[in-house]
Amino acid sequence: MARRGQKKHLKRLPAPKHWPIKRKHGKFTTRVLPGPHPKEESLTLAILLREILGYAETMREVKNILNARQVLVDGRVRTEPRFPVGVMDVIEITSSGERFRLLPKIRGGLRLVPIDDKEATFKLCRIEHKMMVPGGKLQMTLHDGRNLLLPEGHKPSDFRTLDTIKITIPDQKFLKSYPIKEGAYAVITQGKNVGIEGRIVAVERRFGTHASTVTLEDPTGQRVQTALEYVFVVGENSPEVQLESVGGVPA
Known about the structure:
Layout: E1 10-11, E2 28-29, E3 42-44, H1 45-52, H2 59-67, E4 71-73, E5 76-77, E6 84-86, E7 90-93, E8 98-104, E9 110-114, E10 122-133, E11 137-142, E12 147-149, E13 164-168, E14 174-178, E15 185-188, E16 197-204, E17 213-217, E18 223-227, E19 231-235
Antiparallel strand pairs: 1-2, 3-6, 4-5, 4-7, 7-8, 8-9, 10-11, 10-13, 11-12, 13-14, 15-16, 15-19, 16-17, 17-18
């Protein structure tokens, strides 16, 4: 009889390259469950607690921490070690009072940036798709799997695909939107320039076989060009979220 469903195990050697694990330390690692982020762009809570933060040494210790309901992701308690966390997710450790935001790291992967109590109350999400639902309402699908209906007082033309919106967590109330335009501050989330941040100086939208591109100028004055779908706007004129890692937090 053939196997049904996806595989439940993952060996360390073929695991995503950006995972900060020792490839020959053992045979298996935790496999990402289907969730808000794809495997190639996320980490499991087990890897976050064990390999990055160092709060646990074994999977049993990871499960004890999670079962004690000490870990919140975007304001909600998560107890599954294989739950995927990705870009812009807010991680809170209640026992230590620490709060982090996951951001893309240069050369690939994800890094933890400490944030304060105020910043932990909101999240930035990128609009991936728009569609009409029964009742004639516009629904926006966000990069972390959320679905948000058109906020009251706004028109469908106020939001474009790949724009960023600011919402509260965990109740998902709309606060503000940040379109991709010249002068906006953004971070590159994929491609060879992943992790680079800066101000958008040019947006070239093309149709057909030629991909649309965005040119960013980083804080040192150097300019890089990347695909439009790799850009994540994080603020109108300056970043709305903390982008710098401080205090020796593992990157």
